Structure formats: structure tokens, C-alpha cells
């Protein structure tokens, strides 16, 4: 078992089982236990694209300091079946433990000798406590709480919160199951008990934190921004956005519509926005491919729209439940012709919340579609964050009015390219269709008008770049031997790696269109060596950087197996650069 060591900043617990055994709920419960005990967490979940069965696993990383990424090794593995042991037998840390069900036939002969074997009758306790195999994960939670020196009272409170809506009896049997698991460990494995998870000395002064993932954050950000209509067709990894929105629509007074497909989703959202509502849709790469006609329609009709695109590996169906960053160039170039696309990319759940709110204001201000890119790792991996703060946010509807306007011209030409917007029924008459049009919206093929309208629309990006575009973030020393440049969910992994690297900094890019060419050029020009980090095959961000800055990045760490990048891999990549130079 791992020893108490102040140098060991992170403790990693991995729970594995067959789908249906409550892996995700158990991991989230452990994460909340850690947070309420005064610690930070980062959880990583992996599962196959199967309706039933398959291997599900979640790793919960716990630290007294902020933790932003998973680890390649585990300090404790909770194996609720043999498959978990077989698949993760090479991932044990130097001093670690294996918690398993001693009531079933489990082969531990190949487990490394340095791993403490902690067997307890999970199945038996589950049957005796509540006559249900579903309790096995709760028994295991009680067991790992004991091993880590956690507070069983806090765990019982979490169980009551989790199962309270299902009735007093369900709460009672789950509390009993957790207590029995806790008791068995404290009575039979005293030599393995550690004080990792004992409530922190500063827990009474600990700022309230929450375990939240990107899907939940996008939904909360949309609600906070004054969402009025959402149409989303379920598609991994963004399905939980619609689940949160659907559950809360009556409470917060917006409409969530379940459409028949992605084409209907974007067209419904465009229609709602045309009628004056703050509207959004969300999808993954395959769904976005279907939405591209609507994407251009919103651009031509200058209709505000927020689109959330959760990336997963392609092409085609690809790896539906894994992660990737291969959609960047598609989103930048989707649909024929030129129109102003504002494209943002979140680096973690908190950024997803903040950029979702910002996306609604940008869409209204510039009357154009705004795409927020996230990926499966952001969508479904949870992290501890302070409660989100809305104090600095103000809804900005831009040039929008429900009043009658004299001599109204929906697409009036002006230097900034942004015309007065109104809604049907306000007494302002105009035409909106997919053809090129004059100031009133009537279709035209006049060459001069076409040129002026194109310039009007595209000028929005110039104004946006001057007034709203955010600069890339620099982490680490201003001048460094190696500069890492990246985007999306790689942020947390790179930040975690920086803690182990000297004289290395990191440039995080969250605005992709308009692109921060000048600022990025200045940042990267100071670097001796640049390492581009992405989860795609062709280095799409590196291409975008070269296109906009003429800086050619020769060193790339590209991962495209669907799995998350680990801090250990970033450290190795940096060390390889240094060894070559």
C-alpha cells in the first residue's frame, strides 16, 4: 500500500466493472467524499460503445492541491470483476493495493508482488444487506473509504443525498452496505489503513467546491445566459447536455425540444432565434456534418445561433465513446462560401461554462452562428471547481428590438456590418431567405450589392477581433527553453505536466475564429523550441497557426487512439526535444 509521503501530491483510485454495476456513480460518490473532506479531484471515465456489457472504468485522482488530469498508474484498483484485473494489471504504482471480491473466483496470481491484496466478501455483504447484487459498488465504497482513512459519516450523508428520492428503505440498505464494507476493512486489514482521505485541517475554511463535467457546465452556462430555446438530438458525447436542460426547463422557463434528427435540431433553433429567442443546439462531428446547411443559412440570414460541438474520433461512426480533436478544420471550413464564423474552444469544464455564456452574447451582438468546441474528455470527465460565479456576466442582446422601427431595413449597410434586428410581429416588414439579398432582404444577383453584402457580413470578424477576441493564455515563465502550444482538453494534462518540468511554458488557445495571429506570433517568437500537442493525426492546430502566423512548428506530439493524453507523455515529449537539441 502507498505510504504517507508529502511528495506524493496525487492519489489515484480506479474502479472497474461490467456496465450496469454502478462504476460512474461510485466514482462520483468517491469524488464528492474527497471534496467534502477538503481535497481536489479529477475523474476520468472510459467505456465502450455497447448498449449492454463491456468494461467500464473510472479513475478518481485526489490531491490537496488542484489536480487537472488523469495518471497512467493507480494507487488503488477496485476490481468488481476479473476483467478489471486483467486489463489494468500493468498500471499499479510502486506501492499500491487491489480491492476485490473474495466471494468469487478471482485470479490474482499475476498481480505484482508489491501490490497489497485486499479481498473482502463484496457479494456476500451485498446479499445479506439488501439482497441485491447492485449494492456491491456501495460495499466497495465503504471499503476504500476505510483504507484511505475517510469519514464514514460523510459517505453516509452522500448516500442519503444520492438515494433520498428513491425512498428511506433504499437509503437505509445502501448506508448499511457501506458501513459493512468499512467495518470489514477496519477489522481485518488494519495494517493497510492510511490517512490519505481524513478530513483536511483546513476543511472548515474550504471554499465550497463541486465536481462538475463539461456537459453539465455547458447546460448551466446556457441557462445562466438566458437560454430560451434548445433543440438537441442525442449523440455521444454531448447527450447529457440535453438531459440537464430537459430536466430543468420548467424551473428556469425555457423550452427544450427533442427533434427527430440533427437537421431538424439546427433548423428549429434557427427558427426560434429568428423569432427572438436565445437559442442553441449541440451535437458531435457526425451530427454537425448534417447541420452544415443550416450553419450557412444562419450565416446568410444573419441569425444568432449557439452550436456546441463535442468532438469524438471519426471518420463516420468512428469511436463513439472516446475522444479526439479532429473536427477543427471541418468546423472552420464547413458549408460553401464565406461567412463570419466565431469559433471558441474550451479547455476544461469551467471554461466551457464561461465560453457558453460568452457565446450567447457574441451570437446576438454579431448576428451570426457561434460554435463552442469541446471534446469527450471535457464532456464527461469531472473536476473540482469553486461554485461558478455569475456576478460579472450581463446579457447583451446587441442591436435587437421588439419595437416598430421607421423605414426598417433588416440588412442595412453600415461600417460595422451589424444591422438592427427585430422579430416578426413587431410591425417591421422584411424578407429572410437563403439567397443573396438587398437591405430589405429581397433576393438579388446584382454584383455591386453582392459585394457590399459580403463585405458587410465579413466585417463582423474584424470588429469582433478588435472588441471581443481574447488573447491566448500563457502559463509558466514568460521566457522558456520549450513552449508547448495546444488547445481543448489537453490544457489540464499540460498544466499537470508543467509542475514536473523546469523552464517550460504553455500557450493555451481558446479563440480559433477570429484567430489571435498577432498576439500568438509575439508569444511564440520568444520560444527556442515549440511543441504542438493535439489529439488528431494531421496536427490541425499547427496548420492553423502556420496559416495565420507563418510559424512552422516542427515538433508535434499527436495522439489519435481515442485516449486522453497523460502528463507523463507530455514530460517524455519535452525531454525528447531537449535530448535532441
Features:
alpha/beta, 4 domains, 7-stranded mixed beta sheet, 6-stranded mixed beta sheet, globular
Would you kindly provide a written description of the structure presented here, covering whatever features stand out?
The chain is of the alpha/beta class. The chain has four domains: 10-207, Pyruvate-ferredoxin Oxidoreductase, domain 3 (3-Layer(aba) Sandwich); 212-385, 3-Layer(aba) Sandwich (Rossmann fold), CATH 3.40.50; 399-468, no CATH class; 473-580, Rossmann fold. The chain contains 18 helices and 20 strands. The protein has helices spanning 23-36, 82-88, 122-130, 136-147, 152-163, 168-188, 214-224, 239-252, 262-274, 285-301, 328-333, 349-366, 376-380, 447-467, 490-498, 517-525, 540-549, 567-580; strands spanning 10-18, 40-46, 55-63, 74-79, 92-101, 115-120, 209-212, 229-231, 255-257, 279-283, 305-311, 342-345, 369-375, 383-386, 473-475, 482-487, 504-509, 511-513, 529-534, 555-558. The strands form four sheets. A seven-stranded mixed β-sheet has the order 9-8-10-11-13-12-18, with helices on both faces. Strands 2-3-1-4-5-6 form a six-stranded mixed β-sheet, sandwiched between helices. α1 packs across α5 (152-163) and α3 (122-130) crosses α4 (136-147). The longest helix is centred in the N-terminal third of the chain and has 21 residues, at 168-188. The two termini are 40 Å apart. The model has no long low-confidence stretch (mean pLDDT 95).
